[in-house]
Design goal:
This protein is an alpha/beta fold. The protein contains 14 helices and 10 strands.
């Protein structure tokens, strides 16, 4: 309310022309940025993004859809209990990239254990017809159904997309597993165990294969592979079954940090100290791992890049733009050594 009792008018949203004026570029350039940054110089992109931030500019996807008669909503498929899948950062970056390009993001949460887990997504596809689908999780049979009923609907699945960019560093790259196993072998570890992730996930399959290849190549012993679902509970269950008495395991590779934490808890209950008796390392470098006791050796990876780059690829397909994979950037993965790994017990060397 103003001093005279009248209602204040809400501030008028900024326009694309005002963004162009503040950035010192043409409104066509701003429009190109909103369509996906294609061909713009880095300094031009920086100017446009700075102007958008200063003006608090937000694209209006609904208005644009009315003008173009094109759908403007993108469905992002993510797992329920997303925190245990280490995918929050990927989800946030995918949503942010969609909104930057003027699309609205609808997050569809899927219970991976439910018998009708794909029903909501399939209803969305057949009823509301999104502009495209970006999935953080494997779609399995749902992807075939979508392809048969909506063959022209663009779909990107994070794991499949990453396989194409394997050489540049991605979810599917399991190279650091080999590096960690080589490091532990150099310290004297000879008997290993793998707590694997669900085999519907490309990343879990590749990490298991990298583990088995490294064990065979280095002449080491694998006491087995246990399969979990990325959760601490599944890591705990696997940890309860790791053979520790006959030819004792001295190192465990878990496919993600949550499973590694579950393994450590199980080993503690079995009277085994980490790392004095058994070394454990995980994957994804979640924040909790740095404060866990012992702090967790792991693999640091850029989880924002697969969300951002995958969404950019989806938007290119929606707009029938040429692919621009050469523009995609990843921060290389890195092995992070902390307290949960050390030399094996002297009697086992």
């Amino acid at each position: 309310m103003t001093d005279d009792g009248s209602r204040e008018k809400p501030p008028r949203p900024s326009t694309i022309h005002e963004v162009a004026r503040v950035a010192g570029v043409s409104h066509q350039t701003v429009s190109r940025y909103l369509r996906g940054n294609g061909g713009l110089k880095p300094q031009t992109i920086a100017k446009v993004e700075d102007a958008m931030a200063r003006l608090d500019y937000r694209p209006n996807p609904a208005a644009r859809a009315l003008r173009s008669k094109q759908p403007y909503r993108i469905a992002i498929v993510a797992p329920e209990g997303i925190q245990q899948f280490d995918a929050q950062r990927m989800l946030r970056s995918a949503v942010s990239r969609a909104e930057e390009a003027g699309y609205a993001a609808d997050v569809v949460l899927i219970d991976m254990d439910a018998p009708g887990r794909w029903d909501r997504l399939l209803r969305l596809v057949s009823g509301e017809r999104p502009a495209g689908i970006f999935s953080i999780i494997p779609l399995g049979s749902a992807q075939e159904q979508i392809a048969s009923t909506s063959p022209d609907l663009p779909v990107i699945v994070a794991g499949n997309y990453d396989e194409k960019l394997h050489a540049t560093g991605s979810l599917a790259d399991a190279g650091p597993a080999t590096e960690m196993i080589e490091h532990l072998a150099s310290m004297g570890h000879r008997s290993f165990y793998h707590a694997a992730g669900p085999q519907l996930w490309t990343s879990a399959v590749n990490r298991r294969e990298a583990y088995l290849e490294a064990i065979a190549r280095l002449g080491l012993h694998s006491a087995g592979v246990g399969y979990g679902d990325w959760s601490m509970a599944s890591g705990y269950r696997i940890g309860r079954d790791i053979p520790l008495d006959d030819g004792p395991v001295t190192a465990v590779f878990a496919s993600n940090d949550h499973m590694a934490m579950g393994v450590i808890r199980a080993l503690h209950e079995r009277g085994k100290k980490v790392p004095d008796d058994v070394s454990v390392f995980g994957w994804n470098n979640i924040e909790e791992g740095n404060y866990f006791i012992p702090s967790l050796s792991t693999v640091s990876m850029d989880l924002e890049a697969p969300g951002r780059n995958g969404m950019s690829e989806l938007i290119s397909r929606i707009r029938n733009d040429p692919p621009a994979t050469s523009q995609y950037e990843f921060t290389p993965m890195q092995v992070v050594l902390r307290e949960s790994t050390s030399e094996p017990p002297r009697k086992t060397r």
